[in-house]
C-alpha cells in the first residue's frame, strides 16, 4: 500500500490539487484548440479570401452591435477573434515547443557530458554558459534575430522568420538545461550506482543516458515546463517588439501588438482578449511547473 | 525529575494519523544518564523531540504526560515552551558540522544564548562563555572564542555544541546520537565530558543512540525501544546482561563482540531469510561454481602512493598536495579476508577506489594474482580485472539505480561480460541468484525502493557475484544498516566467501565487525599502514600504539555482562 | 580570499573578452562594413583603399586585438545609421536605463525580500497562499502586458501619470537624471514598476525557497532548542544565511533587469539604451548592436564582482582561513 502510494504520489497530489487540475484543463483546451485550429476555426487568418472587411470591428456577443457568428468579435480586418487566437496560439506553441526541444537536447547533452567528464570539458562548457548568462535570454534572441537580418538575403528572410525565431529562443534557453543537468549529474556521479557502473567497465554513453539521465529527469521536467512558459513569453515579447513574426502570420504576441493600436479607442477586445489568452496559457503552464516542483522537491511543500 | 507517562505522538497523513510512538514511559533523575536505544524507526528521536517541544511538523502529542520537575510541559503555551528551551531543557545534535551557524562567531552564539535566558551584561556573558569553554576543554578559550565554527575540528565543534547546550545550566539535556559522527578517540572524549557534566553539575541526560557499546559505557539506566514502543527498561547492566524481553536478547546477540570471535551471528528466527547453502541445487550457485576459470586470486599492493592536488587558496603559493595514501604495501592472500580498519579520512575508501581503477595512484604497482593491475585510466573498459574485481558499497540506498528494476540491475554483469546472451536465461539466472542471497525470486520485477536497506544490500551482493568475481571489495557494507540486519549480511558474506572461494578486502571503521570477518587485518591512519598482521594476533597483542589506543577507546560491553 | 577575488576577476575578463569577440565578429562578418560605411557612388578602388586603411585585410587576430584596444580607449566606432560616434550615442542613453534599472531593482528588493521572508515563516497562512498565487500570475504576465495595463489604468483611464518619455530631467555633471524632479519621478514610476514586478516575483520566490531550506537546517533547530529569541532566530540566524545564495542570484538577475528594460523602454518610449538597441536591430546598425552587447556584459560582470565582494563580507568561510 505504502509502496503503491509512493509510486503514484504525484498522481495523488494532482487529484487533490484544484489549481493543478484547472491549469491542466486550461492548458489542454488551448493545446487541443491550437492543434485543431485548421478544422475548427471559423476563418483562416492567413487566407484573405476567408474573411471580409465588412465584418470588421464587431464586438463580442455580449455587447451591442455584435454578430452571434463571431463570439468574441472581430478585428479591423474582419477576422474572427477566436480564429486568430487559435491560429496564434498554434504558432506560439509550435515555436515554443520546437525551441524548447532544441534547447533541451543541446543543454541536457552538454550538461550531462560536462558533469560526467568534468575537468577541462566541463570548464569550457561552463565558461560558454557564463558568457551566455551575461547576455540575458531576450538579448540573445534579439541579437540572433538582428544577425539573421544582416546575413540572410531579404528575399528569404520572411520565409525563415519562424525558423530564426525558434533558433533565437532555443539558444537563449539552453543554459538553464545545461546548468541543471550538470549540477544534477555531479550529484549522481558521487552516488555509488554510478561508480559501480563505471567500475564494471560500462560505456560512458550508457552510464550517461541509461544510468544517470533517468535519475535527473525530475528537475529537468520542472525546468522544461518553466522554460516552455518562458519560450512562449519570449516569442510574444519579440513579436510584440515587432522583431518576431510579421503581421500576416500572427502569433499571440503579434495579435497583442496589433491590438495596441486600439488601446485608446473603444475596441478593447482586439487587445485584451488575446492578452487574456496568452496570460491564461502561461499561468497554467507555470502552475503545472510549480506543481511538478513540489512533487519532485517535497521539502518545500 | 523528567517523567514521561503513556506518551503518544502521531503524525497526520492522508489516511488518518500514523502513530510514531505509543505508551512510552520513562523517568530520568538529576545527574542520571539515561540511554534510549533502538534500531532505525524505533521512535527514539521522536521521544526527545516531544520532550523539548520540537516535533517536526505536522507531528503532535496525542496523549500522555510530560513533566519536568513540577512543570507540566504539555500545558505550556508556545512562548512558555520556547522560554524553557535552553533554560531548563537543552539539546545536542548528531552532526557538529551542521549544528552551528556558520556565519556567527562562537562568542556571538554563546553570548546570545546566555543573554536569552539571564539578564547579564555583555562582559559578564563573555566571561561566562570563556570559562565554560575552558571547563569543556578548549585551550586558549579567550582567543578561540572569536573564531567561526569552520575553524574548529569536528571534535572541538562538538565540544562547542555541548558548551552551548549547558551555558544556561539546564536541568535536562537531550543528546541525539551525540557521538555517531565522531571518530573513536573523539567519541571517547565527548562521552567522558558528558559523564563529567552529569556528575559535577547534576544534569540529567537523555542519551539517544543506536550504539549498544556507548550505552554500556556511560548510561546509568537504559530504555530499549522498537517500532514506537518501549520493550524493556532498567539498570544498564541488568538490561544488557540479563535481558528479559526477547527483542533485547536478539539485539544483544546481533552485536558483534570486540574481544572474541564467534563463528556465526545468532539472528532472530523470524528473519526473512534462510542461510545460503540450505537451498539444494541452486542454478545460480551451479553457474557460479562452473564458471571459475581461475583458482583463488590474491592481490598485492606494492609501494602505493596517492596524492590529490590541493585546492588553491593563494596566487603565490602552489597548494600543497593532499596525501591520501603513502607507501602502502599490502598482500591479500588468495581466498582470505583482509580487514582494513581506520578512522574517517584515513584513506580506506581511497584505497578501494585505487584498486577498482576509479582513481590512479601517483606511484606504486598493483598486482592481481601474478598480473599487473593497470591503474586509473590505463585500465581499459574490457580489462579482465573489471570482471574479476567487484565491489559491495556502503550505502544500499545509493548503490542500486533507483530507476532500474532489480532484474535489469542483476542482468547487467551477465551481458556486459558476455556470459549469457539470452535474455530469458539471464532472467532465470538472476532469479536463482536472488534466492541464493536469501530473497524471493519475484523481487526481480520490482524497483529498489520497494525494499529495505538490508534487502537492497543483498541485491548489491547478488549483482557483484553475477560478475563471477574472484576478488570482492566490501566498503563498509553494513555501516548504514541496523545491527540485526548487519548480522544477517555479515553471515551471508561469510557463507558466500566460503562456498565460492572469494578473496575479500573488507573495509570498516568498526573494529568488532572486522574481528568477526577477517583473517588478516591492516590498520590505516592518515594514509599510512600502522600495523598489519593476523586478526587474532592483532586483537590479542596489538603492537602499534595507535592500534592499542583504538582498542582501548572503543566502547564495549564488559565481558562479564555478555550472555 | 585574495585568490578567490582574483579568480573571479580573471573569469570576468574572460567573459568580457568573449563578448568583445562576439561584438567584433558581428561587426566583421554580418554584412560588409565597407559597403555599409560607403555609399553606392564610391568606386571599388576607393572601397579597397578604405578597406586597407581600416586594416580589414590584416590577420584576423590582429584586427580583433585592435578592436579590443579601441574599446578599452573608449573608441567604439561610428553608427552606420546616424554616422555619429557610438560611444556618444550610448553614453547619452546610459543614465536613463541605469536609473530605470536601479529603481526597478530597489522596488523588487524592498518588496520582494520581506514578502519572501513572510511567506517562508508562515508557509500555511492564507496570506501566503494568496501572495504565492499572485506572484505565479505575476511571472506569467509578459512585461509588455504589465506595461500596457499600467498605461491603460494610470495613464489612460485615471490620467494620473505620463505614459511615455522621461518627464523633467536635470543635468548633473553630464548625467541626465530624472531622480531630482517630481515630473521625473512621475514619469519613472510606471516604467520602473513594470520592470520591477517581474523581478519582484523572482526575488520573493527565491528568498522564500532559500529561507525554508535554511529553517530546516540543524543550526536553526539547535538555536531553537537553546531558546534563542524567535526574532533573533528569524532575522539574524536564518535571514543572514538565506542571503548568501540569494545575493548571487540577484546579481545574476541584474543583467536580466537591464535586458528587460528593452521591453519596458519600448512600451514607454523611454529614451534609454534598450530603445537604441531596438532601433539598431531594426536598421541592422551593427556597431551599435555590438557596443550595446559589450556595455551590457560589462554591467553584468561589474555587478557580479560587487556581489562577490559582498559575499566575502557576509561569509566568514571565505574571509577567515581555516586554522586547523
Automatic annotation (TrEMBL), chain A:
Pfam families: BPD_transp_1. InterPro entries: BP-dependent_transpt_permease, MetI-like, MetI-like_sf. GO terms for biological process: transmembrane transport. Residues 89-289 form the ABC transmembrane type-1 domain. GO terms for cellular component: plasma membrane. The chain crosses the membrane at residues 12-41, 91-113, 133-156, 162-181, 209-234, 269-292. It is a multi-pass membrane protein. PROSITE patterns: ABC_TM1. Coiled coil: none annotated. It comes from the Bacteria. The keyword Metal-binding does not apply. This is Oligopeptide transport system permease protein OppC. It comes from Pelagimonas varians.
From TrEMBL, chain B:
The gene is gsiA_7. It is found in: Cell inner membrane. Residues 2-252, 299-551 form the ABC transporter domain. PROSITE patterns: ABC_TRANSPORTER_1, ABC_TRANSPORTER_2. Its EC number is 3.6.3.-. GO terms for cellular component: plasma membrane. The keyword Ribosomal protein does not apply. PANTHER family: D,D-DIPEPTIDE TRANSPORT ATP-BINDING PROTEIN DDPF-RELATED, TRANSPORT ATP-BINDING PROTEIN. SMART domains: AAA. InterPro entries: AAA+_ATPase (IPR003593), ABC_transp_ATP-bind (IPR050319), ABC_transporter-like_ATP-bd (IPR003439), ABC_transporter-like_CS (IPR017871), Oligopep_ABC_C (IPR013563), P-loop_NTPase (IPR027417). It is a peripheral membrane protein. One of its GO terms (biological process) is transmembrane transport. Keywords: ATP-binding, Hydrolase, Nucleotide-binding, Transport. Belongs to the ABC transporter superfamily. This is Glutathione import ATP-binding protein GsiA. Its main location: membrane. GO terms for molecular function: ATP binding; ATP hydrolysis activity. CDD domains: ABC_NikE_OppD_transporters (cd03257).
Automatic annotation (TrEMBL), chain C:
It holds the Pfam family BPD_transp_1. Keywords: Cell membrane, Membrane, Transmembrane, Transmembrane helix, Transport. Its main location: membrane. GO terms for cellular component: plasma membrane. Gene3D superfamilies: MetI-like. SUPFAM superfamilies: MetI-like. This is Glutathione transport system permease protein GsiC. It comes from Pelagimonas varians. The gene is gsiC_5.
Amino acid at each position: 500500500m505504502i509502496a503503491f502510494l509512493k509510486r503514484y504520489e504525484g498522481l495523488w497530489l494532482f487529484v487533490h490539487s484544484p489549481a493543478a487540475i484547472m491549469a491542466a484543463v486550461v492548458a489542454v483546451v488551448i493545446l487541443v484548440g491550437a492543434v485543431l485550429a485548421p478544422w475548427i476555426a471559423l476563418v483562416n487568418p492567413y487566407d484573405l479570401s476567408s474573411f471580409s472587411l465588412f465584418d470588421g470591428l464587431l464586438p463580442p456577443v455580449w455587447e451591442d452591435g455584435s454578430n452571434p457568428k463571431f463570439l468574441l468579435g472581430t478585428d479591423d480586418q474582419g477576422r474572427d477573434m477566436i480564429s486568430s487566437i487559435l491560429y496564434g496560439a498554434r504558432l506560439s506553441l509550435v515555436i515554443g515547443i520546437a525551441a524548447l526541444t532544441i534547447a533541451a537536447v543541446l543543454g541536457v547533452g552538454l550538461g550531462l557530458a560536462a558533469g560526467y567528464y568534468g575537468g577541462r570539458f566541463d570548464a569550457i562548457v561552463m565558461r560558454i554558459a557564463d558568457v551566455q548568462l551575461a547576455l540575458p535570454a531576450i538579448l540573445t534572441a534579439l541579437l540572433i534575430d538582428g544577425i539573421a537580418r544582416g546575413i540572410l538575403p531579404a528575399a528569404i528572410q520572411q520565409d525563415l522568420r519562424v525558423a530564426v525565431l525558434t533558433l533565437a529562443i532555443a539558444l537563449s534557453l539552453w543554459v538553464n538545461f545545461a546548468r541543471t543537468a550538470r549540477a544534477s549529474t555531479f550529484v549522481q556521479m558521487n552516488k555509488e550506482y554510478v561508480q559501480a557502473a563505471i567500475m564494471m567497465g560500462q560505456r560512458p554513453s550508457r552510464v550517461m543516458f541509461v544510468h544517470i539521465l533517468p535519475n535527473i529527469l525530475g528537475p529537468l521536467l520542472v525546468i522544461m515546463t518553466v522554460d516552455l512558459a518562458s519560450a512562449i513569453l519570449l516569442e510574444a515579447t519579440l513579436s510584440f517588439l515587432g522583431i518576431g513574426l510579421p503581421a500576416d502570420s500572427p502569433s499571440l504576441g503579434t495579435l497583442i501588438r496589433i491590438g495596441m493600436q486600439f488601446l485608446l479607442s473603444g475596441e478593447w477586445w482586439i487587445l485584451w482578449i488575446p492578452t487574456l489568452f496568452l496570460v491564461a496559457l502561461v499561468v497554467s503552464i507555470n502552475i503545472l511547473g510549480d506543481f511538478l516542483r513540489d512533487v519532485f522537491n517535497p521539502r518545500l511543500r | 525529575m523528567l517523567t514521561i507517562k503513556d506518551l503518544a505522538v502521531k503524525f497526520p497523513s492522508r489516511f488518518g494519523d500514523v502513530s510514531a510512538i505509543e505508551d512510552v514511559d520513562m523517568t530520568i533523575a538529576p545527574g542520571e544518564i539515561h540511554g534510549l536505544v533502538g534500531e532505525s524507526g524505533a521512535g527514539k528521536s521522536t521521544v526527545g523531540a516531544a520532550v523539548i517541544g520540537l516535533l517536526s511538523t505536522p507531528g503532535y502529542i496525542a496523549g500522555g504526560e510530560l513533566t519536568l520537575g513540577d512543570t507540566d510541559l504539555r500545558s505550556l503555551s508556545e512562548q512558555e515552551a520556547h522560554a524553557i528551551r535552553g533554560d531548563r531543557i537543552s539539546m545536542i545534535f548528531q552532526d557538529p558540522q551542521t549544528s552551528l551557524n556558520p556565519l556567527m562567531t562562537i562568542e556571538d552564539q554563546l553570548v546570545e544564548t546566555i543573554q536569552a535566558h539571564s539578564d547579564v551584561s555583555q562582559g559578564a556573558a563573555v566571561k561566562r562563555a570563556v570559562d565554560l569553554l575552558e571547563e569543556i576543554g578548549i585551550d586558549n578559550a579567550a582567543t578561540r572564542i572569536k573564531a567561526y565554527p569552520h575553524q574548529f575540528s569536528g571534535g572541538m565543534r562538538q565540544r562547542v555544541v555541548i558548551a552551548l547546550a549547558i551555558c544556561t545550566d539546564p536541568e535536562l539535556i537531550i543528546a541525539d546520537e551525540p557521538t555517531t559522527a565522531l571518530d573513536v578517540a573523539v567519541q571517547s572524549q565527548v562521552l567522558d565530558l558528558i559523564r563529567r557534566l552529569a556528575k559535577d553539575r547534576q544534569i540529567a541526560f537523555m542519551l539517544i543512540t543506536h550504539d549498544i557499546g556507548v550505552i554500556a559505557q556511560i548510561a546509568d539506566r537504559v530504555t530499549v525501544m522498537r517500532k514506537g514502543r518501549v520493550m524493556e527498561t532498567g539498570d544498564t547492566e541488568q538490561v544488557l546482561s540479563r535481558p528479559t524481553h526477547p527483542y533485547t536478547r536478539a539485539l544483544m546477540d546481533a552485536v558483534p563482540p570486540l574481544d572474541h570471535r564467534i563463528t556465526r551471528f545468532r539472528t532472530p528466527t523470524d528473519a526473512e531469510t534462510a542461510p545460503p547453502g540450505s537451498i539444494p541445487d541452486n542454478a545460480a550457485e551451479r553457474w557460479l561454481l562452473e564458471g571459475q576459470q581461475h583458482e583463488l586470486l590474491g592481490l598485492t599492493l606494492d609501494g602505493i602512493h596517492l596524492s590529490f592536488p590541493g585546492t588553491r587558496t593563494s596566487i603565490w603559493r602552489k597548494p600543497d598536495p593532499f596525501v591520501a595514501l603513502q607507501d602502502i604495501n599490502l598482500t591479500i592472500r588468495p581466498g582470505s579476508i583482509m580487514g582494513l580498519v581506520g578512522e574517517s579520512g584515513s584513506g580506506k575508501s581511497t584505497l578501494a577506489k585505487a584498486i577498482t581503477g576509479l582513481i590512479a595512484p601517483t606511484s606504486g604497482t598493483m598486482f592481481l594474482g601474478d598480473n599487473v593491475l593497470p591503474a586509473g585510466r590505463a585500465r581499459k573498459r574490457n580489462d579482465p580485472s573489471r570482471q574479476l574485481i567487484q565491489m559491495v558499497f556502503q550505502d544500499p540506498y545509493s548503490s542500486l539505480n533507483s530507476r532500474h528494476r532489480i532484474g535489469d540491475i542483476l542482468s547487467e554483469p551477465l551481458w556486459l561480460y558476455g556470459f549469457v546472451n539470452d535474455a530469458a536465461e539471464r532472467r532465470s539466472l538472476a532469479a536463482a541468484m536472488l534466492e541464493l542471497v536469501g530473497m524471493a525470486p519475484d523481487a526481480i520485477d520490482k524497483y529498489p525502493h520497494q525494499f529495505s536497506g538490508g534487502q537492497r544490500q543483498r541485491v548489491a551482493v547478488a549483482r557483484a557475484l553475477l560478475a563471477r568475481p574472484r576478488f570482492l571489495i566490501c566498503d563498509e557494507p553494513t555501516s548504514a544498516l541496523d545491527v540485526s540486519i548487519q548480522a544477517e549480511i555479515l553471515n551471508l558474506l561469510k557463507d558466500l566467501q566460503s562456498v565460492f572461494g572469494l578473496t575479500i578486502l573488507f573495509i570498516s571503521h568498526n573494529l568488532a565487525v572486522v574481528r568477526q570477518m577477517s583473517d588478516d587485518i591492516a590498520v590505516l591512519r592518515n594514509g599510512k599502514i600502522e600495523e598489519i598482521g593476523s586478526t587474532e594476533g592483532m586483537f590479542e597483542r596489538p603492537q602499534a600504539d595507535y592500534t592499542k589506543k583504538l582498542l582501548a577507546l572503543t566502547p564495549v560491553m564488559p565481558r562479564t555482562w555478555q550472555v | 580570499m585574495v585568490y578567490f577575488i582574483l579568480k573571479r576577476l580573471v573569469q570576468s575578463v574572460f567573459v568580457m573578452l568573449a563578448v568583445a569577440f562576439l561584438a567584433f565578429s558581428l561587426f566583421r562578418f554580418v554584412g560588409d562594413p565597407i559597403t555599409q560605411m560607403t555609399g553606392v557612388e564610391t568606386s571599388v578602388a576607393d572601397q579597397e583603399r578604405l578597406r586597407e586603411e581600416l586594416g580589414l585585410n590584416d590577420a584576423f587576430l590582429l584586427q580583433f586585438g585592435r578592436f579590443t584596444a579601441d574599446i578599452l580607449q573608449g573608441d567604439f566606432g561610428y553608427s552606420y545609421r546616424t554616422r555619429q560616434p557610438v560611444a556618444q550615442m550610448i553614453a547619452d542613453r546610459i543614465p536613463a536605463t541605469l536609473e530605470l534599472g536601479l529603481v526597478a531593482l530597489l522596488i523588487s528588493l524592498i518588496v520582494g525580500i520581506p514578502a519572501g521572508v513572510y511567506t517562508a515563516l508562515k508557509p500555511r497562512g492564507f496570506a501566503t497562499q494568496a501572495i504565492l498565487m499572485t506572484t505565479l500570475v505575476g511571472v506569467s504576465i509578459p512585461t509588455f502586458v504589465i506595461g500596457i495595463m499600467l498605461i491603460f489604468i494610470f495613464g489612460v483611464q485615471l490620467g494620473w501619470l505620463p505614459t511615455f518619455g522621461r518627464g523633467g530631467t536635470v543635468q548633473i555633471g553630464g548625467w541626465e537624471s530624472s531622480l531630482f524632479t517630481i515630473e521625473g519621478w512621475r514619469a519613472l514610476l510606471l516604467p520602473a514598476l513594470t520592470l520591477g514586478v517581474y523581478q519582484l516575483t523572482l526575488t520573493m520566490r527565491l528568498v522564500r525557497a532559500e529561507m525554508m531550506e535554511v529553517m530546516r537546517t540543524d543550526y536553526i533547530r539547535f538555536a531553537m532548542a537553546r531558546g534563542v529569541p524567535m526574532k533573533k532566530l528569524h532575522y539574524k540566524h536564518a535571514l543572514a544565511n538565506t542571503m548568501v545564495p540569494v545575493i548571487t542570484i540577484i546579481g545574476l538577475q541584474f543583467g536580466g533587469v537591464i535586458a528587460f528594460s528593452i521591453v519596458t523602454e519600448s512600451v514607454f518610449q523611454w529614451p534609454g539604451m534598450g530603445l537604441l538597441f531596438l532601433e539598431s536591430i531594426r536598421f541592422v546598425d551593427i556597431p551599435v548592436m555590438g557596443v550595446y552587447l559589450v556595455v551590457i556584459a560589462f554591467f553584468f560582470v561589474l555587478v557580479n564582482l560587487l556581489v562577490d565582494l559582498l559575499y566575502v563580507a557576509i561569509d566568514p568561510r571565505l574571509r577567515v582561513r581555516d586554522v586547523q
